[in-house]
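In this supplementary section we document a worked example of the pipeline. Step one takes a protein sequence of length 188 as its only input; no multiple sequence alignment statistics are reported here. Step two produces a three-dimensional model, which step three serialises into structure tokens for compact storage. The input and output of this example are shown verbatim.
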Amino acid sequence: MQGKLIIFSAPSGAGKTTIVHHLLKKFPELSFSISATTRELRGTEKHENDYYFISKEEFLHKVAHQEFVEFEEVYNGTFYGTLRSEIERIWNEGKHVIFDIDVEGGIRLKRKYEEDALAIFVQPPSLEVLKERLSGRGTDSPEKLQERFVKAEKELLYANKFDVILKNYDLATACAEAEQLVGNFLKK
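The serialised model returned by step three reads:
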């Protein structure tokens, strides 16, 4: 069975991960796509649960063998990507795939899967609020935070390339709107 793809993209700190986790509880027919990355584990993250943490060499080997549906160097020297085998694994379980993915990756997935994909851009209330959220995490160095801020400003310009812009000014409202959007898409 080829299922559908639900893509959530946003700048880091916009709330997409929280919304995706909410939807996974509401829709048992969804399964989370675990991305591959070359970055280090953070906090309580686990390999094969949050990400497939692999070396840069292994990542580039998989790129050379066309094992990724999409990939990119998100931050200098840090790669992220969606393995073709991950989508196939979920479809083989008879489920639809939900993504929590960076903006450029989201655009690439939508372009590849077209009508089988719903691409949702989660928009934060403002860049200032986004900066507060990222700083409040306490997981990044000042240099890494600055890198994220610059990237976020650029990513906000891509919102109109998505099927829907979901404004996350209030999390409960954004989750309810996301439920409606996903429910309607899965009924098609």
